[in-house]
Design goal:
The structure is a single chain. It contains 3 helices and no strands. The protein has one domain. The chain is an all-alpha fold. The radius of gyration is 18 Å and the shape is elongated. Helix 1 packs antiparallel against helix 2. The protein is 87% helix and 0% strand. The structure holds fe (ii) ion. The site of fe (ii) ion has 4 residues, from helix 1 and helix 2.
């Protein structure tokens, strides 16, 4: 049987994990911005190829972290999807 301490501790841990996940998404987006800037600053084809490959991996990481965030906090998924639906593609 879980004590109130364990329940509160789990809630606190989950809160921290959700906030850390959001911070990690920011980190991945910042990495994408930096790789993109460095991509634009080089004429070296090997560097372009390597940096572009890494940048695409960072985009995958963003998706993974959003998946984790949505798992941990379903309300974030609901609001994210609401935002997608409100965006006008035309
Ligand atoms: Fe990453």
């Amino acid at each position: 049987m879980k004590s109130i301490f364990n329940i509160l501790n789990n809630q606190s841990n989950n809160y921290s994990t959700i906030q850390n996940c959001r911070a990690d998404i920011i980190g991945e987006l910042e990495a994408i911005i930096q790789y993109n800037a460095h991509l634009e600053q080089t004429d070296n084809e090997k560097a372009k190829e390597t940096i572009n490959d890494i940048m695409l991996e960072e985009m995958v990481h963003v998706g993974q972290l959003f998946g984790l965030l949505f798992y941990l906090n379903p309300e974030s998924k609901t609001q994210f999807e609401k935002g997608l639906n409100e965006f006008n593609y035309s």
